[in-house]
Each structure stands twice: as C-alpha cells, then as structure tokens.
Specification:
D-ser_dehydrat-like_dom, elongated, alpha/beta, lyase, D-amino_acid_metab_enzyme, D-TA family PLP-dependent enzyme, single chain, 9-stranded mixed sheet, Lyase, Ornithine Decarboxylase, Chain A, domain 1, PLP-binding_barrel
C-alpha cells in the first residue's frame, strides 16, 4: 500500500463494512428503514453495499447524484433538496421515465405550482416529502402548523403525492457535549413525528417519518413514530465525528496517503494541501479538531496550515519522519475530501484489494 503514489484516497474495507453494518443493525433493532445519504461517498459500489446490508433506497443532495446512482441500478432515491427550476424538473421527469422511484423535498407552496406545471403533460405523479426545520434554520417549514398548511396544499395538486415528512439536524455538529447532541436528536425525531400527527388529525396520511444526521441518528431513530434514518458520514466517519465524541478515531475508514516533501527543524511538509484535505475544522461555528487532519501514529505532528498543494505541520517534539516517508491522514471532513478524488484505493490488512470509482464526484447540479 505504501508503494502507491501520493496523494491517494485510501478506504479500509473492513472498517467500511463494520460502519455499514452498525447502521443497518440499529435500523433493524428499531424496526425502522435505513436510507443512507450518499453525498459522503458518491460511489455506486458503496451504495450497492449499503443496499445489500438492508437499505430501502438512498438519499442524495442533488439531481446529478441521483442520475448517477440511477444509472448504476439504484431505483429508490430521495433527493433531499428543494427543487423548483423548470430545467431541473424536466430532469426529474426523465428519471421517472426510467422507472426510478424518485421523491423530492418541498418546503414552499410556490414550488408546488412549478412542479405541477411541468408534470401536467406527463403520465407521472411525483412523490414529495415535506422538509421541516428541526433547528438547523436552513431549509424547511416550521414543525406543526406550517407542515399541515403545506400538506393541505400538496393535496390540491393532481400531479403530486405526499409520501413523508423529514428533517436534518445538521446543527448537531455545533454541539459542545454528547448531552446536547442527545437533546438535538430527541427534538429532531419529535419535530417529524408531531408534524405527521398533526397532518393525520386533518385526514392526511404520512407514511414516512424520516430523520438524518450522523451525530443524532441513534437518538432520533429511537423516537416513537420515526420510521426511517438517513445518516451519511457514518459510512466512513472522520476527525470531526471523533472530535464530537460520536466515534473513536480508530473507526475512521477513510484516510489520505501523503508523502513527506520537506523536513525542517520546526516543521514537516506533506503533499496534501487544501485541494486534498480541504479547509474544514468543524461545522456551524464549532471547531472540533486541532489542525487539518489527524496524522496516524505521529502525535508529535499537527497540520497547522494548508496552502493549495502543501500541508504544513508543526512539531511538538522531534519526529522520526524523513524525506519521502509516507503517512496516513484521517481527514477532518470526509465528504468534502472524497469530492476531490476520482477513485478510492481499497485496502484490507495493509494490502490493496481493489480500486473503486467516485462515480458522482462533482455532481453539484
């Protein structure tokens, strides 16, 4: 493995399987569905492994990701993103025409008219899920009354079918303690379940009540009435998740193989800059890590700053590293790092066993 050129994106096969199976086992224990978000890995191969482990379908962030996954044979896809552009709706129609069971997020009454207009001259009815805001304050209607208003409006559109209510508690990444993550997760589940109950009081059936977020899925997924979980990052984990105490650093399946390109009395330079490690140090204002990646086996090193092609690491004590040595670095944020690479080098027990394509890399439209 250390004979590979650098930087290389490495994926530990056994850790990957362990992480997938942990999520699947939790879903089975709770008797709920598992619909992983693929924006972390962007790989048809990994999505197929998740489906084999019991996933009912997948979640994507963008239509481009959904198109790639559909071409790879995955036919049950939630696009967890609001869509109202006529050009994008035409792409949804093409997916429906291919037999893909597509659902999309809605959180605005005006968007419903755009969807209805583009679908009216097709044979298709589009399934939509109401997104509620459980505290992230990004997209989503407020739980309860606003969800009911939107649900009633959906029922007046002949080309739309209400299939579920969902949320994403991404603000859990700003939590300072596990107790706070627990509280966020509990509210995440309640916001969906209670919104669904209010809709059903009005005679509007809500088959799916879905929650997400790697830090919170084990809490939100235990709320009575939740029917589905959608964690993404948990397939790999990363240094930010370890910093949140969601996992331990040795559970992280994804690393970067880097070379030492410079050794000086007070610093070491790696060939992994911002174009590979990216600049994340946390999320939503919470810095959960020190430096720009965890260098495995070298506690004396902190990657203090990044330029585009250089990782500049400072030393707390003397290091044994020398020119051309190679190290593995656990990235702070796996999702952004994966999007910088064309392929994973898959390894097991230190031996390369395969190369997998990052199929949906750059699919941001």
């Amino acid at each position: 493995m250390y004979k590979l050129d650098t930087p290389s994106l490495l994926l530990d096969y056994q850790k990957l399987l362990t992480n997938i199976n942990e999520i699947s086992s939790f879903a089975k224990e709770q008797a709920i569905a598992y619909r992983p978000h693929i924006k972390t890995h962007k790989s048809i191969k990994i999505a197929q492994l998740q489906m084999e482990a019991g996933a009912v379908g997948i979640t994507t962030a963008k239509i481009g990701e959904a198109e790639v996954m559909a071409a790879g044979g995955i036919k049950d896809i939630l696009i967890a993103y609001p869509i109202s552009s006529p050009d994008k709706i035409k792409r949804l129609v093409k997916l429906l025409d291919q037999g893909v069971h597509i659902k999309i997020a809605v959180d605005h009454i005006e968007a419903l008219s755009y969807l209805q207009r583009e679908l009216e001259h097709t044979p298709f009815t589009l399934e939509v899920w109401i997104k509620v805001n459980s505290g992230l304050n990004r997209c989503g209607v407020e739980p309860g009354k606003e969800a009911v208003i939107l649900a009633k409006e959906i029922m007046t559109h002949s080309k739309l079918k209400l299939g579920g209510i969902f949320t994403h508690a991404g603000h859990s990444y700003a939590a300072k303690t596990m107790d706070e993550i627990e509280r966020i997760g509990h509210y995440e589940g309640r916001s969906v379940v209670e919104s669904a109950k209010e809709c059903e009081k009005e005679g509007i059936r809500i088959p799916v009540r879905s929650v997400g977020s790697t830090p919170t899925y084990k809490r939100a997924g235990k709320v009575a009435g939740v029917t589905e979980i959608r964690p993404g990052n948990a397939v790999f984990f990363d240094a930010i998740q370890a910093g949140l105490d969601v996992t331990s650093i040795d559970r992280c399946a994804l690393t970067l193989l880097a070379s030492v390109v410079g050794v000086y009395k007070d610093r070491v330079i790696f060939d992994t800059g911002s174009k590979t490690l990216c600049l994340d140090k946390g999320a939503h204002g919470n810095q959960t890590v020190t430096g720009f990646g965890h260098v495995i086996g070298h506690p004396e090193i902190v990657i203090e700053r990044l330029s585009e092609e250089h990782g500049v690491a400072v030393l707390s004590q003397e290091t044994t590293l020398k020119l051309n040595d190679k190290v593995q670095i656990i990235p702070n944020h796996a999702c952004t790092v994966v999007n910088q690479f064309d392929e994973y080098v898959v390894h097991e027990n230190g031996r390369v066993i395969d190369v997998w394509k990052v199929h949906a890399r750059g699919m941001v439209k």
